[in-house]
Amino acid sequence: MKKKIKKLNMLEKKNFSAKQKRKVFISKKKIEEKILNIAVYLARKGEGALFVIGDKVDYSILVKQRVEKFNLFDSGADKLLKSIATIDGSVIIDKEGNVLAYGAMIKKTRPFVGYGTRHAAAFTASMKGNTSILCSEEEHKVKIFKNGRLIMQIDGLQKNVEKEIPKISSILESLGAGVVGTIGVAALAPALGIALIPGVIVFGAGYYAIKNLIKHARKLS
Fold first, then answer.
1. Residue 200, SS3?
2. CA–CA distance from 92 to each of 89, 153, 193 (Å)?
3. Of 174, 184, 217, nearest in space to 32 by CA
4. What is the sign, positive or negative, of the torsion defined by CA atoms of 84, 89, 93, 94?
């Protein structure tokens, strides 16, 4: 842990001068797209991590925050984010893309049946309109939770999956919690041929009818 913190300090000094500290306003789609790219990278390497995007996250800090707050779109942010994400706990990001905390514990977690503490934290944190993006180290999967529901899963080992992330983030935006909550993901699947685990859209081994799914979701929203 001390070695990792030392590395983080070096990265922070190298990449974030006072002039680079800024507040930016970026669409939620762009924020989710950025995090999905990081998450797929970590999942492929077999690293576990949890990112929570939103302004209503109930959390406490587990580790001393040696890295100052920064924005996802600052120069050098990707490298720093990959480092802090693998520290035990969650990375908390607000709706402007500012990284507020890392090594954070989600409070009052509820069990996510059949899975461990990281899944429970992702499930709980997503309940107040937030988005949770989880990297599963054992499965090499990226899992996306919205409004207390697991709605998508991406295979981190799928070849060239990064090229599909802009489309996947468009689906996230098109579906939204409202459409998913009202209709249910399973209702979108039969006519589109999308591979499912119960109630969850799965991307990997082919990206089934992505354009049609986007169009279909927009008509229903």
1. strand
2. 10, 20, 35
3. 174
4. negative
Answer for the pair 35, 96: CB distance below 8 angstroms, yes or no: no
- Cα–Cα–Cα angle for 209, 190, 142, rounded to 5 degrees: 60
- Mean pLDDT, rounded, for 38-45: 94
Element (H, E) at 112: none
Burial class (CB in 10 A: 0-12, 13-18, 19+), 68: exposed
Look-up of token digits 């996802």: 72
Q: What is the tens place of the pLDDT at every residue in 57-89?
A: 999 998 888 888 899 999 999 999 999 999 999
Q: What is the mean pLDDT of residues 137-157?
A: 87
| Terminal C-alpha separation, the chain | 46
Q: Cβ distance 40 to 78 under 8 Å?
A: no
Kindly report, residue by residue over 3-17, the tens digit of the pLDDT: 555 555 554 554 444
User: Cα(4)–Cα(87) distance, rounded to whole angstroms?
Assistant: 9
Residue with tokens 């697991």: 150
User: What is the model's pTM?
Assistant: 0.74
CATH code given to domain 2-158: 3.40.1700.10
Rounded Cα gap, residues 73 and 30, in angstroms? 10
